[in-house]
Specification:
7 strands; 43% helix; oxidoreductase activity; NAD(P)-bd_dom_sf
Amino acid sequence: MGKLDGRVVIVTGAARGQGEQEARLFVAEGAKVVVADVLDDRGEALAKEIGALYVHLDVSQEADWHAAVAAARETYGRVDGLVNNAGILRFNSLTDTPLDEFMQVVRVNQVGCFLGVKTVAAEMADGGTIVNTASYTAVTGMAAVGAYAATKHAILGLTRVAALELASRRIRVNAMCPGAIDTAMSNPARLDPAADAEETSRALDGLYRKLVPLGRIGKPEEVARLALFLTSEDSSYITGQPFVIDGGWLAGVSVI
Ligand code: NAD
């Protein structure tokens, strides 16, 4: 018995990183998964490997959402779950951030999450689940990621309101707030075939040893296990909540 037997779940940004690990784990737990991304080659290859459906979905485009839900229904007959995972990060001080750059981050992270809730919840079976991927920066500040942090704070607001509005249909909506996770977003060497990503990963462990009580960067597989918990019956009485998964980073600082 898998924890998601028979359930149909859409995972956005699933071609790589945390979304990829969520897709792999959900399939292993018996779900029928829709791998959604803008990286078509990578997403299609993953879907083929794990026995999932790939759809091209730019989360900032409402028409893409309607097409993705239609494809899920056509292939699997229903939709029971959504993981809003797709996201982008841009580094800049607020005073140097061009409006276009700010709006690009808003379009993907915040509007994408809103469109996912709006489009998929409307078509979702009663008793479904939505997991929104926020961030450590949804619950505290971090210099040089102002646009990103603003959108991640907004995702927590969307999560709480969606939980209230959808509770009458027993649709549960929660958010994950990962700290530093070893994907291309925090470890860009993972995108460079010539680079040794494991070496940069060890270097990042060195950096995070100073910041994170558990002394290392997190793994995408660890976030996937939290997404599984929030998508499965194991979290049946939980809705509207942010879940921090950060190795203790947010707990505070040590002065000795
Ligand atoms: P990643 O960059 O490896 O993966 C992001 C995925 O989103 C990619 O597959 C990318 O193609 C996809 N994507 C980007 N724009 C898209 C769009 N418009 N439509 C559809 N897909 C799109 O990074 P990741 O760490 O796996 O990121 C997953 C989520 O976790 C993001 O929301 C990110 O903000 C969040 N997060 C990451 C970290 C971290 O340290 N890695 C920390 C906190 C939160």
